[in-house]
Amino acid sequence: MAKLKDRVQNALDEARMLVLGTELLIGFHYRSAFESGFDQIPPHSRALMMAALGCLLIAMIMLMSPGAYHRIVEQGEDSESLHGFATTIFPWFARSSRGLPFFASGFCCPSTSRSAAGRRTRPSTV
Question: What is the structure's pLDDT at 112?
């Protein structure tokens, strides 16, 4: 079995990697509102894109919580409670049907960014 320090470091490193991807998706969603033609998108599509942005912000909060817990509650020290918290948040978020929609919204909703005339606006995602 790995040492506690290694397990905590691994959990925090995984969180950092997921945070980077989530930041990228959030940036694309924020950018889409400033694209030319965004005002031509039907209101329900704009609302869907803003709801997806809200879901991604919730995902970011959940992914950042183990790092904040480590700094604030545990004062930078490794502990079993920190490892337990991180291993409870990640499986709940990443492997279950409860957390997946937050990420899925970041991938599927930008595809609705078509203008009312049917032409494609500048791409808001990669």
Answer: 47
Q: What is the mean pLDDT of each run of 10 residues along the chain (126 residues)?
A: 83 84 86 84 86 86 85 85 80 58 63 46 52
How far apart are alpha carbons 2 and 81 in whole angstroms?
Answer: 16
CA distance 14 to 30: 25
Three-state SS letters, the chain:
CCCHHHHHHHHHHHHHHHHHHHHHHHHHHHHHCCCCCHHHCCHHHHHHHHHHHHHHHHHHHHHHHHHHHHHHCCCCCCCHHHHHHHHHHHHHHHCCCCCHHHHHHHHHHHHHCECCCCCECCCCCC
This prediction has a pTM of 0.71
Other CB atoms within 10 Å distance of the CB of residue 6: 11
